[in-house]
Design a protein that fits this description.
alpha/beta, Rossmann fold, Dihydrodipicolinate Reductase, domain 2, seven-stranded mixed β-sheet, six-stranded parallel β-sheet
Amino acid sequence: MAILSLPHQNNLFRTARINRPKSRFMPTTKVRMSLQENGPSIAVVGVTGAVGQEFLSVLSDRDFPYRSIKMLASKRSAGRRFTFQDNEYVIEELTPDSFDGVDIALFSAGGSISKEFGPIAVDRGTIVVDNSSAFRMDENVPLVIPEVNPEAMENIKLGTGKGSLIANPNCSTIICLMAATPLHRQAKVIRMVVSTYQAASGAGAAAMEELELQTREVLEGRPPTCEIFKQQYAFNLFSHNAPVLSNGYNEEEMKLVKETRKIWNDKDVKVTATCIRVPVMRAHAESVNLQFEKPLDEVTARNILKNAPGVVVIDDRASNHFPTPLEVSSKDDVAVGRIRSDLSQDRNKGLDIFVCGDQIRKGAALNAIQIAELLL
């Protein structure tokens, strides 16, 4: 079975990395002209990275209006040319002067770059939407999932000349809360237990390349190349590679705990998480157990989720068909299934659900663009 699945996984890997004709940076969708004189000026920081490339695809997909766009990256990439929406662009080196005249900057270049250049951009009057963890837990920076807590950024306005920072949550938090929040609004979650099954895409293109390489090596009877991770990834799974803290949780798990409390504005909600890296190319899966303050039966929960924005229900018990990473890869919606009452809890005060979402799409680039759309 593993051998038969390799071509599909391999094609998916290439889609996740590139899938752009002629130029590595062209969007996958049909060309749309989004240049508009009354639109904001935008900048993409880290345009050569996986999420930076996805920024461009989402901007094109959603026909985001802009009057100008800057493509920013490291000195190493500066000077390269590519075509986006029928216009040729030259990648510019990121410097403090890059943000002069920029209304919105989309950052995905790592925490250290965000910490250095984010405040500089804000001082120049730019609204920064940051995909790193640099500012997520700063009490003065809103942490936003547009379908969940758009009110967190209601005081940030475009066109005032005043810069601001807005943080994009961690991918696992976004995928989880897209499904959990509609249920939380109905019955109030008091405890949430999350187990994640996270794809190679969350660790970047190099991890995806290593998983593909290892798969070939193992099938050919050769020892696997282990450079990105310290152990074999192909045909294996292991605890998420984030640093382990003194409490025994790793940083990825604690992001789910802390970010959920901030986004829900509920410091008392109990959250525990176990994050696992699995040999999947793209899209994360999560098993989520919810305990409620008020009763919520599975029929009501299913109907709530069917009507939730950005969520699609795949819950066919008869065919044993539920969400999979392959089905949601390169898709905007988060898929939810395995919706069932928790038999260990009485009076319909518990539910189990299974959630899948594209880590690069909704877990990163799409969420950031949706934040920018709220500013228009």
